[in-house]
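The following block was generated as part of the benchmark described in Methods. Ligand: glutamine.
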Amino acid sequence: MAGRGPVGVLALQGDFREHIAVLRSLGADAVGVRRPSELAEVSGLIIPGGESSVIDKLSRLFDLAAPLKRAIADGLPVWGTCAGLIMLADTVLDGIQGQQSLGGLDIAVRRNAFGSQLDSFETELDIPVLGEPSVHAVFIRAPIVESASTSVTTLAALPDGRVVAVEQNNLLGTSFHPEMTGDTRFHEYFLSKVTSQ
Ligand code: GLN
């Protein structure tokens, strides 16, 4: 697929519009993806934040779950933010009953891992692949990567060691929301993965 075709953002639920706006601000051809025919055209895909149990249900209802799993296995660059990270995890802890993920990232994530006292917070993260300065990260009812296989690279962790950004081959996942802060470095990093595949 070699970087041909637009970059897609899964547009079933959540903050897909914000991701499309950031990608377009970087000069990328970005489109919302709601159907298998649209998925087939893209050279990379962002699964946005929102509510993973809803994105799961809608992806099955719209017959997108199976094509998404195939695309992930075939090496399509896919980046999941927050709920999207949950969708990419092989194992979901504290999902609602019957919740499924697409999988691909060999990790276990815990939904809503910060509990009700700390639903949302912002912090500075050192992310070596993005260089200096540190990244202002916004967490909203965020998941945590509780465990990961040795083939998964940690890109960022909180000061207490909890992992919040990972990469494994064609897949990227972040617990936080780079589309909300005006810092476009994570989107640029993803676009460089798309063009180099
Ligand atoms: N808590 C949400 C979920 O379980 C994720 C929140 C988010 O994407 N900001 O999907």
